[in-house]
Amino acid sequence: MTKRFIRASLLGSLILAFIVAGPLTADVNKPRPEDRRIVFVVTTLIHAQHISKKELDDEISQRAIKAFLQGYDPYKLYFSQQDIDEFMKEQTNLDDQLADKSVEFAYSVFKRYAQRVEERTRLAIEVLKRDLAFDKDEEFVTDTKAAQYATTAEEFEDLWRRRVKYDFLQLKADEVEDKVAKERLERRYNGFLRRVKQTNDDELLERYLTAVASAYDPHTSYFSPNTLDDFHIRMALNYQGIGAELQDEDGAAVIRRVIPGGAAEKQGQLKAKDRIVSVGQGKDGEMVDVRKSKLEGIIDVIRGKEGTLVRIGVISAGEKETKIYEITRAKIELADSAAKSEIIEAGQRPDGKPLRVGVIDLPSFYLDMEAARSGGEYRSTTRDVKKILDEFKEKNVDVVLLDLRRNGGGSLSEAIGVTGLFIDQGTVVQVKDSAGKIEKFDDRVAGMAWDKPLVVATSRFSASASEIVAGAVQDYGRGIVVGDKSTHGKGTVQSLLELGPRLFRIDDPPNLGALKITMQQFYRPGGASTQERGVVADIVVPSLSSTLSKGESELDYALDFDSVDSAEFTHYGMAGKDVLKKLNDASQQRRAESDDFKNLNSVIERVAKQRKRKAIPLHEEKYRAYRKSLRSQDDSDDKTADDDKKKPDFYLNEIASISGDYYRALGDDTVAGK
Where in the chain is the domain with CATH 3.90.226.10? Predict the structure, then answer.
């Protein structure tokens, strides 16, 4: 196929020339003029700046079309094999269409998808009206690779009969009455159809361009304007609104959680499980029925400028009456994603005093970029962790446990800043760009905020910026890494390139989304990449996350591991082999005697076995037995891993015990650089 590309050196002038096409308009039935502009900028930026230097060619086209189709119908419930065969005729043509700035293919696929969802929804509701037999030995395939596209009406009939039975059995196992279960499923199926029909152009373009972008590597994607706004909120850890988390529950917008300290909690009336049915702006604005609106749209109209009033119409669980609550919007701090601390006692110091382990739970590396750019007060991970370390000093903490087990990354500069709190200047990470140029990023602040022993807890979920910190701590011999055998293995750096400023050279350009693009690969101070291999723990403590989480090497089109020359840096010698062996032996002995860890090991084995299942039984007795095994697993999870979002006390206590052993094993060498 032909390849038409724009050279990087011409990028700026060509983009400027391209925007003269006219004002932005929208048409939900066909591609918009701005779609062409966005496609132009996205494909140009990928070609010019992606680290792989791979061209937009037939191979990328084939990867993208598979991702796009599978993204819409992973379980092969909606498209027919004939649909797929028709779409796949274009598998080597998407590169040419994108070079022409065309997204017609995306619209064609979506229109067919919406049509198929409507047809399958009618079929599902028809099946619901029948008497469903649960005494047959049959299964519903839940493995996406094992599932097959239907080719005939009879095959779709059988497929959806099984799917409805599967959904129905889930509710029956939760002791939901048959009549209520059927009503709930009908609302669920119709709600899904409604949401599909409410898909807007931005969402479609985001899905399509992300399928193309992720064909280069798993972490390159396109953010629609709404996604970009949400990204900025997550990074800044604040937004303006009422302070409540919403979720879709069988087609209804339901309060999942009222955020502590937020406007809704202070107002005192809104509570979890309340169903939102209407929203009004200000004291006198019309109460607009939102029961058939998309969840994202409801969130948008509830959010608003700090100090403004919004009226929320809700129906509480088990009630029928609508109540109207007036809430004044406020700035909401997302405290759950910020650094938190606690102190755990882990035995005694050699002098007989309690040995104090200061735990810093760090879920992400965050930075309020807009506030930082403005030069005023702003929130950052480094500032928050520094404050905690100062408090630990005042409280005579002996060893710090930096918990990165659920930290998937974030700001590179903050990862460098946090590492700098534990070392006295030096290279934290090396970064190689697409031209092969290597740049060293150093901690340039003299001294350490914390010079006593350091333990870094990691898991398979720890990725990117977390791996920078863990890898640097390990290379410097500044502390030890404890947790899953290895971290995720994401050794690439993404940059967020907003498209509005690239298309409109004005003071306040429109939000046209952004390209999150892999432009660099990072390397530890010692020269090894964390890509694919991750950071290998010094002390391995088994957990569910190693079973539940895919590593980078399992993701499609992940970049390969490689290495660069080592940087010059100080080795503090606080993690010798003899010390590590002593710590590992002691931990293994404790775990062997622990009922909690014995139970955890059995749960890990059970989860690993369940994850290999390709289908779920639809015979009621066999399904209930299957669910019972899951429930016992869930009960164990509540005590042991809480779905790995929050580790159990016994797990954290074991890492704290390792931390105490570490302090004692160091003897007189408990201060770095002494």
Answer: 336-491+529-666
Q: Which pLDDT does position 6 carry in this prediction?
A: 33
The angle at the Cα of 20, spanning 14 to 24, to the nearest 5 degrees, equals: 115
Q: Find out whether 487 and 530 touch, Cβ atoms under 8 Å.
A: yes
Q: How distant is the alpha carbon of residue 72 from its chain centre?
A: 19
Q: How many CB atoms lie within 10 A of CB 318?
A: 6
3-state secondary structure (DSSP) of residue 508: coil
Q: Is 57 exposed, middle or buried (0-12, 13-18, 19+ CB in 10 A)?
A: middle
Segment among 22-26, 137-141, 628-632 with least mean pLDDT: 22-26
The topology (CATH level 3) of 336-491+529-666 is 2-enoyl-CoA Hydratase; Chain A, domain 1 (3.90.226)
The DSSP code sequence of 299-340 is HHHH---TT-EEEEEEE-TT----EEEEEE-EEEE-GGGS-E
Q: How confident is the model at residue 527 (pLDDT cuts 50, 70, 90)?
A: very high
Tell which residue, 399, 441, 515, has the closest CA to residue 48.
Answer: 515
Evaluate if residue 480 carries a pLDDT over 90.
yes
The residue among 291 and 14 whose pLDDT is bigger is 291
In this predicted model, what pLDDT tens digit does every residue of 114-167 receive, in sequence order?
A: 999 999 999 999 999 998 889 999 999 999 999 999 999 999 999 999 999 999
3-state DSSP assignment of residue 388: helix
pLDDT in tens, 54-106: 999 999 999 999 999 999 999 999 999 999 999 999 999 999 999 999 999 99
- Tokens 């993690």 belong to residue: 575
**Angle at the Cα of 495 from the Cα atoms of 494 and 500, rounded to 5 degrees:** 140
CA pair distance 580, 134, nearest whole angstrom: 55
CATH class name, domain 238-333: mainly beta
Q: DSSP of 152-181, one letter per residue?
A: SHHHHHHHHHHHHHHHHHHHHHTT--HHHH
Contact 39/98 with Cβ under 8 angstroms? Answer: yes
pLDDT tens per residue across span 462-474: 999 999 999 999 9
Q: What is the pLDDT of residues 638-650, one digit of tens each?
A: 443 344 444 448 9
Query: Two tokens at 33?
Result: 């003029």
Residue range(s) occupied by CATH 2.30.42.10 in the chain = 238-333
Rounded Cα distance, 357 and 70, in Å: 47
Strand residues in 434-578 grouped as ranges (E):
438-443, 454-458, 480-483, 492-498, 514-523, 539-540
Residues in the chain, overall count: 674
Give the CA diameter of the chain.
Answer: 78
pLDDT value for 669 = 86
Contact call for residues 181 and 172 (beta carbons, < 8 A): yes
The pair of three-digit structure tokens given for residue 184, joined into one six-digit string: 């709930």
Q: Which of 358, 400, 364, 369 is nearest to 381 (CA)?
A: 364
Q: How many helices (DSSP H) and strands (DSSP E) are in the chain?
A: 22, 21
